[in-house]
Structures
1.
Amino acid sequence: MPKSSKVTQREHSNEHVTESVADLLALEAPMDYKSSQMSMNMAGGGPPPIGKPDISPDLEDGRPAWNSKLQYILAQVGFSVGLGNVWRFPYLCQKNGGGAYLVPYFILLILIGIPLFFLELAVGQRIRRGSIGVWNYVCPRLGGIGVSSLMVCGFVGLYYNVIIGWSIFYFFQSFQYPLPWSDCPIRRNGSQAIVEPECEKSSATTYFWYRETLNITSTIADSGGLNWRMTLSLLAAWIIVCLAVIKGIQSSGKVMYFSSLFPYLVLFCFLVRGLFLKGAVDGIAHMFTPKLEIMLEPQVWREAATQVFFALGLGFGGVIAFSSYNKRDNNCHFDAVLVSVINFVTSILATLVVFAVLGFKANVMNEKCVVENAEKILGYLNSNVLSQDLIPPHVNFSHLTSSDYAEMYGVIKIVKEDSFAQLGLEPCLLEDELNKAGAVQGTGLAFIAFTEAMTHFPASPFWSVMFFFMLINLGLGSMIGTMTGITTPILDTFKIRKEFLTVGCCIVAFLCGLLFVQRSGNYFVTMFDDYSAGLPLTLVVVLENVSVAWIYGTKRFMQDLEDMLGFRPYSVYFYLWKYVSPVCLLVLISASVVEMAISPPGYNAWVQDLATERFQSYPPWALVMCFALIIVAMLPLPLVFIARHFNWLPDGSNKLSVSYRKSLAKEASTLEDETRFILGKNPSEAPSPMPSHRAYLGPGSTSPVELITNSTSISGYGSGYQTNPAPPKSES
């Protein structure tokens, strides 16, 4: 309780409290707070009436609740574990020192990942609102945090569901043998049959991705019209998402039982199958061989922090929305640690699977290289360009191994040093193939490298169906969280039927998503992925951290957690929230801005004639679009701050759920009882005016009693308790 509390001031006065503070605060019909179980047995307090049911908060305000703790955990896991765990984390490991990359990742998971994830879970569970309602209440002037979070969710959801649409297309294409991307198509040129040149210059899987699936144009300026197959796939993706979230957590919670667990079944199946493939151990060993010298580079730590940040879904609003449907005494600290550990373990599991399969692919490609170059050497031997004396006697061309070829290659290179370049022989090193295989990420890994590896599997259609069905479920889990982060704050603010809102959002999103299913749509997916979320979302989380730790007050927040959880969280969280996490996030923002400034804005365009990707700069209108995405996402932050500072926008901080307002009312009733008890005694006999453990969760540092007695007007539900609320006071 703040020292400026009216209760504390009235300890030394003879004033009597003449109004029922609880009734004013609840703004509803008077309640018998004397018989409340939260009241102390003092001054008229007593046991609750016999037969009166104990109504839980989620029943009082009609707010939906999770059917079980397992359902809630699966929802959080499904939201946090997404496509990035499968196609981003393995690439970052390979790029940033292999096993050594796990060290900075784990350190940053402890320093910023778990604390900030715990923070979002706690505020959502405590206030029982979506992102807009939570940050309006914690700090009304920073209420734009919730709006910006919602905007980012919208941008990400638009292109993320396109990826699910691509996965749906590949899923249905997998029900045929051989797989359609196994071989290059044959083109008839009169009576002559020739291999499609674009495919021959690249590969069958690359051709299928760029030409058969995307039918991509060569520049972002050339839209090429709608790709009707991708349009239908996108429509199917939005129908699935709509059906999953149309009833809120009642429908999405049931979907999570399958969509969250099925990917683990597939990953374990792929891991077991992959370990029996030739070259799988080489791939895993290559992956986890630590390169300690790389670990100290700042770029490695920046990318590790970014991956931790996005892997847990911080700032999107989905974490807060999911936790707002919990009971207020749920152990959210356990949930934060559990989900973070599951996310980390899943990333490692996915990395094992990816590099086991890519190791097999590298081995196949290396053997292919050996065969092709051995044929060249045989040709040179037959034409007397090379002497038979250069070939070691134990080498058998009909059963040539990689080691035999490496020995033969070394001898020829030494003897024919002057003319060796004209021979056109390749070293065919497995290490080179592993580096090449591990250097792909995102769609390149899922739709090109991994699909190519699966064509060499026995029963390849089965594994292809399983893989793309896994991608659909991984994406669906993340989309459910993203959609919940959009719909929950809107439903909390406006009284709309969730079915109408969900269907309306999905229809609008599908229409906007047509931008991404043009023939040039892949370039816009890249643009949105690079610019719509990164910087705005990092800023959102920084302000979340600052608003709780510095404006609301870390000590008050820790006390609220103790009241809510029944135990006090570890003291280390105090320092992590107040000092470590803000500093790390500010460094991350600075590094992101510097990276954005020094990296030329552009995209990798597919050049059909060359059958390869080539970097191109964005045209001026596309540059404007890039920076508009950043500005639009961050614009609510200053707008809401200015509007609330000059009282142009109503203070939405007290638009709380009925259950939460009633809990405040009960607390205020207890404070009133204590005040009357104190005033009824002589000062020398009066006990301590306020137990030290009482904490009031609010944007300012005032008590419930002061909040009411200082009010100039009291209006109905949906308006603030004060017409001119005092600015929040920082509490350290």
Note: Residues 332-382 form the longest helix (51 residues).
2.
Amino acid sequence: MVTGKTCTMYCVEREILDEQRLEELSRRLDSSQTHTLFSHRLKNSLRCSIPKLKRTVVGFLPVLYWLPHYSVWDYGMPDLISGISVGIMHLPQGMAYALLASLPPVFGLYSSFYPALVYFFFGSSRHISIGTFTILSIMVGSVTERLAPDENFLIVNKTSGIEEVDITARDLYRVQVAAATTVLGGSIQVILGLMQFGFVGTYLSEPLVRAYTSAAAAHAVLAQLKTIFGVSPARFSGPLSMVYTLVDVCGLLPNTHLPTLVVSVLSIVILITAKELNNRCRKKLQVPIPVELIVIVVGTLISFYAHLNETYEISVVGKIPSGIQPPTMPNASIFPEVVVDAFALAIVGYAISVSLGKTFALKHGYKIDSSQELVALGLSNAVGGFFQCYSVCASMSRSLIQETTGGLYCTSLLLVTMMKLGSLFQELPKAVLAAIVFVNLKGMFKQYTDIVTLWRRNKIDLVVWLVTWVSTLLLNLDMGLAASISFAMLTVIFRTQSPRYSVLGHLPGTELYLDLESHREVKEVPGITIFRSSATIYFANAELYLEALKEKSGLDITKMITYKRRQEAKQRKRDRRAARRAKRQDTLSRDLERISLGSLGKWTWDIHSIILDLSTANFIDTVALKTLRNIFHDFGEIDVDIYIAGCQAPVVEQLEQGGFFSDITKERLFTTVHDAVLYCINLRGDGTLPNYDIKVVGFTVLTCPHNYME
């Protein structure tokens, strides 16, 4: 050991390790010894014991883990405050978001109650608030309006003789559509969760989700414009429906209902002002001011007074039935028409919920089970669908308030509201609910700043964001999501198809090999080309890998081998002619010299070895294996040795299973690039590495940083 001024330096003496020698030293087990047979895994999974049964039950019902340790004295009052606060938020948001789903407001209350109660028992997150959410409400609304448009429920008024919409029949069928979609989506979530498919949410990248929610917020705003202005635009569905709706709404602006517009504007101003005060005073306030509930109560009182005095007409919520509705079977005939929408709702809802759950879990120092969250959310939706709820997920605004487990108290408040207080909100103006939706979307519009951030950080993520946003706006939520995910997957393929190829050089004084083009102090190793790809090699980029290797090494193998074979053919013809002449003269020499490109004088090069750094590869398919075999064969024809370095253990196993080592020995495969370089120097060089104090004696290598040799 040598100690310098700034660090401690070590001299390491060891032998050069190729794969064959490494297996001898480490006594690597065969793949059959490391991989458990399926029959054994199945047998172990079916084996039952008391501790395993307890873990399984507690894992499926997380409430059994924390409820026995729950202290009412320590947590009762804070949880009561939290539950009441979240419940107060559920009331206006549930009714408001039901309008987004094109359903009567009372079904928003149902959707805030039943799923939250189910999640209380099965959810593994202690802080998220399950209930109605803007994005899912819009997605459900697109399904209900597509399958139950107004024109399907037109009837003739017997008094006036004018066609009008049978609102009762329309809403009844829309509730059936929403319930069937919710049950199917929840079932999909449960099945995926039981199959441990909790990772599916990872395919929705953050830029994609944020762009999708931003575009969905634009759909939500457009859906509320008719209520805010008091107009009745035509219903459109399919691609570009948002454009058609916007044009129609703008054309109807001269017919704006002024009382409705006044109520909407006043509600929006009051909500924005009060929410800003809540944000500025949140450190001083133990509980946020329930401004939404206050606006609803005041709006209901004003509407009731105006209705009594017949001063003006304004659209109100209407009849809200009291009590709990009995469970009903969903209409199974609707399932085939909504299966794609149900799958989209299942994935989007899970992605939003699990991302919020992981955020709170990290903040409070515990872990959530992604697959169990999928099961819990699926059961919440599936059970809720039988009680005429629509799809739900976690809400950021409510979850921020529910920093403790106040779920039980929250559902209790909602139960009281549905049982006794629901009828009090029958005169509530729909314009107030539209204003609540409009103001709550403010946070999603702030996401447009992502464009500037992604422009600076990652252009490909920016393209994903923009494509997702445009496709969701123009193609609607269902087809927009499918197009967005497809494009995001294409970017992954594009990145692996066009990786960065680089030639590595040696950093003096270390065992590191870095990109020559990116580092000034890195030196090229004479006679050796070290080639690296930033992505794994597989069928989509194997040919590009070979072309890049030819370009970086400066050796056009195809032309060189073609030229060599032509010269060999000419040489054989000359040899045959010479043999015939020699036979006549009986002076033919039997020792014919082997043709080499160097002896032909066509090309000259200084490379005697190429090292392929495969440390970035995490798998090898048959196409890549064939490409590597061709590289060994083709470069061998021009007397350039090929070596592989840095393979991970699974890659070595795949090479073995593919028969790669049937004609290529494991002595060509080294554990590190440095081992391969030292081997090449010993075999083909002069035994020294420039700018590096090194001595090669057989297979024993003594390495020390420059100027530190003793």
Note: The chain has a mean pLDDT of 80.
3.
Amino acid sequence: MSRVAKRFYRVDSLHGLDNLDRGESAFEENRWVFEISHEAANKVGGIYQVIRSKCSASVEELGDQYILLGPYKETSVRTEVELGDFPSHSPLTAAVNNLRAEGWRVHPGRWLVDGSPQIILFDIGSASGRLDEYKHELYENTKIGIPNGDVECNDAVLFGVMVARFIEEFRAEVVNFSDAKPRVCAHFHEWLAGVGLITLRMRSVDVATVFTTHATLLGRFLCAGAVDFYNNLDKFNIDEEAGRRGIYHRYCMERCAAHLSHTFTTVSEITGIEAEHLLKRKPDIITPNGLNVKKFSALHEFQNLHALSKEKINDFIRGHFYGFMDFDLDNTLYFFIAGRYEFGNKGADIYIEALARLNHYMKASGTNKTVIAFMIFPAKTNNFNIESLRGQAVTKSLRDTIHDIQAKIGKRMYEICLTGRLPDSEELLLKEETVRLKRCIFAAQRKSLPPITTHNVCDDTVDPVLNALRRCRLFNDPHDRVKVIFHPEFLSVTNPLFGMDYEEFVRGCHLGVFPSYYEPWGYTPAECTVMGIPSVTTNLSGFGCFMAEHIADPMSYGIYIIDRRYIGLEESVRQLAQNLFEFVQLNRRQRIIQRNRTERLSELLDWKILGTYYRQARQHSLGIMYPELAPEEEAAGAGRLNYPRPLSEPPSPTSSRATTPAPSEVGSDDEDSIDSEAELEELGVASANGSTVSSR
């Protein structure tokens, strides 16, 4: 197999990409797909990212036969949606006009994201006058009672009824616009949109339905209570647990939607197990979450971005650790964890414990490397602390002073050299400039240790991250090889400390650590993978299970999967600490090779590939609704996207071999990971013409 073929053979078995015809076949067959979510053009949670990133692939497949339905939120619409009526000859326009005739405010337009999909937004306030009537209809048919005081559920009822009424009108009108029999599929996300599905089935509308749960409602509540969730799934008294938490009616709405849908899906195998026990229905199809992947034209480009972003982080570190810069930034690794501030669910507890053990391992081994571990969780604060701001000001003053003196030295050197002689040292650095430098150096000294947090955290005595750091005695002591920084705020370019957004920060780090206990999918490690950054995940996250299924040796591709399901907490912490220590032992060349491998996995997470599972779910529901459309044999989704073990030894060091991976008979890391002279330069090895470039 040639080196070029080797690049692509991993996905040769993929099929279904010929369906990306921008809706031509769907138009001829009169197929329509509605995707319904409370987070369509409404950024309130993680499902927004799922819907938003999938739009481009959905439009590539279905064109204008694909329509999003969501609630009308004035603040979001101003910046995210271009409002405007659809063409007059469209059945969508006829259905919209019918609803407007009933006094409902309906807003069609296009969502301003990749793909520019059609979207219809419903102003639920315009239907609120008949709320009691809709709730009574729901109760008469399902015996689900909605408390008057639950505003969120009342809004879900209004939204669901408006969506169902629109689809009912559309189904009645669409027969007048084509000779082909209409095939309509409505895909609902989460319990907040589930009332629409329930209403469609109550009214026997001729539409195929799909319901996707991204995380069960009760599962989130149970895990928030610090219970041994996965080992007791079959032991919970579901009704009692939901009633005790005051969410029984919401749980019933979710369970009803799951059972009434023609096709039920979850985002991962682990969530499917959860749904089978809590919702009492096994998912028909797993629909993993993807990303809108944009590949670089050359492999070395993302490596260059890593170097540029890392330098920005270096600038922050110089300011934060001023007076204690006794470590070499060229031998410093940046780890991070980020997400919602759910201390146990996100695995921050075992992350901090593993960092303490890693600190011990590194000191015992005598390594000259340093690890700086970031924890980015939004928490209540009283703004930045003084020490963090002072550090950035001190280093900026020193940097500006040096730049000014450099310019003056250069000018004096130029003038003296014009006279035909070399300048003396006294002529280069004047006495007053030496004094300026000394003042800056003295200002950069301090007695207190660098702070472990960048902000003044409210109620810091009960903050779980700070308490865990205190318990593990991670105080940024000069003798520690692991330093910690808790940043209780999401990153943005306006941040006065970092001055970079989250994506840029991730690119500059070396390893993302996400040892989550409850993570139905896990976008944070997926985003790391797409950006070529290795990550740690677990076998209790959807992402970790997905990677374990499709990759023969995930660790060789920079995906470290911690076992949090079949072993105890102590063993999980030990495994995480050992994996972190093994990563620290990698040399620069091995890390570059591993980043190249990690970036290759991005094709696994591309919606153009994973969208096939959504297509399979729609075909499944249409086959149930219209038996003549049922496939002769079960569709295979995206196939098994196997990534075999790399042709060379995995880059993790072991005691039985040298730090540089040993070549194998069939290939080497160079063959497996390098395909251009630019990459050879990155690795600092001889290129084809014999020249050598030193590795940074």
Note: The longest helix spans residues 386-418.
4.
Amino acid sequence: MSEEAGPMLVVYDDPSDQRSLSLDDTSSTEESPDETRLSLETTNDAIPYIGQRFSTHDAAYEFYSEFAKRCGFSIRRHRTEGKDGVGKGLTRRYFVCHRAGNTPIKNSNESKPQRNRKSSRCGCQAYLRISKTTELGAPEWRVTGFANHHNHELLEPNQVRFLPAYRTISDTDKSRILMFAKTGISVHQMMRLMELEKCVEPGYLPFTEKDVRNLLQSFRKLDPEEEGIDLLRMCRNIKEKDSNFKFEYTLDSNNRLENIAWSYASSVQSYEIFGDAVVFDTTHRLTAFDMPLGIWVGMNNYGMPCFFGCVLLREENLRSFSWALKAFLGFMNGKAPQTILTDQNLCLKEAIAMEMPMTQHALCIWMIVAKFPSWFNAVLGERYNEWKAEFFRLYNLESNDDFELGWRDMVNSFGLHTNRHIANLYGLRILWALPFLRSHFFAGMTTTGQSKSINAFIQRFLSAQTRLAHFVEQVAVAVDFKDQAGEQQTMQQNLQNICLKTGAPMESHAALMLTPFAFSKLQEQLVLAAHYASFQMDDDFLVRHHMKVEGGRKVYWDPRDGIISCSCRHFEFSGILCRHALRVLSTGNCFQIPDRYLPIRWRRISTPSAKLLQSAPSDHADRIQFLQSMVSSLVTESAKSKERLDIAIEQVSILLSRIREQPVSLQGMRDVSSIHRSL
């Protein structure tokens, strides 16, 4: 054949096994050479040929599949036949190109939505036929027909791997993906990690992000009743391993899981100190199971979110929310928060009033603001940003009267008299506007920065939901990760060199007592205090900016009892003294901030055991008794398990050896003797 001749059409057929090939149950027609696309060049050893033998039909399929992958297409099993139509078992199989056949025309049904998906089938005639034979005694499969004739473009090697037939996720990779899903990382991050683990270039894994999403989705399509049983079993297993893990649940009349709430030992410990202000976020759902999810979160002394508890509810009604709040209080030994921030929900509002009557309820401003675009963008048009700035100005005012006047002017200025969202916001103003809330402690969780931090924390264990039973583990991993990250950030904060800006003794004293996060907030107020003048009145002080001749804040100070308060209510709201109070303290020659205005929740010492050290006695004999109390607690905690006891014995032995190396004082011997006599 000359070089100018057309491309060779590779078609083989065994005359002894002539049968018509019809891939779509119609007569097969051969394409002309001009309409034909041939396979990529391969070695003769890798090309199927008539008479080629295989021990099983699966072996033949694997061989043809590898050949197809090298050529740029994939295959599928097409048709099976028995011997002459008589039921003597399978005797002939056809494997065809993935683009063989034609898509049948479906009758349109207006009542059902139609999937507008284009078919890849184009009537390709490439095929491999194998027939079963027993000529040599043992049954085997022999190639009796082969055509490598394609009427479509074949794919390059870097494209063929994206065909569905070659996108596979091994069992090992599935396990890795599920493990990653439990940590809450995104699918994109999973792909990057697995590329690094397998040392492959980006995009060269044998599966795509879509395949991973489909895999995760397949684990979500499970029986909710079975999932509930698995979830309870998971919680009981965790409880057996950790007696401090807490969970409560309810069953419905059919004995199916209705509601479940849980909390971890570290969460209960954190709540002891940081449970004064709590966010109860109920705006999320487990989409795979269509269950409302509630999350209790707080803010620690380093300005980082801390997890308190989680609840899954079947319904969002008064009964469910009341049960959730009761369960939460049970976890926290009956201690209710001073303030609780939630989304706007009438049933939740009523439940809080019933179960936490002494707790100040407020609405999360960031949850309200998140709805503004859908509420006001179309109504206000180009004036939306202008209105939003005015809203935040009113939100941050101090005086109730100023807010009322400003709100009225804002409604008139923007023509919002009949807007139902504006009317609703005004009706709920005492639950979200700061002029009405400054007398209550919120730990800074009303600021935009802290709200973003809390939301990012919550999203961490919502980003890759798998099975419901795994969700408890997933939350635990996210909490543990946050705790570890928090420890690193805490260490970084503590290692930072604190820069004193005023040189005032109060500043250096506060720097020693407060965490860097809390100190930075106090330092801002100390710097601003230098710009204020204080005037002593009859029973209090008037403090105002040195550039102003009117207005100001009233500060009451009792030096004997160490009590100070300001009309701006900044300390009540944030736990940090305001510039006005600090100015009065400075004027009164106060060189240290009174201890009561350096709250435990903002100090460097934050754990329950460290909290005890804050109140540890200074007298030598009293300190010995205090040590005895700590030793008693050590024995009690260590006796709870063999592992704890082993650690305690090992560490106490080391500590005792170090102590015996230290010198002994005569006063110390007397104190020890007196204690022994009293026992």
Note: The longest strand covers residues 277-286.
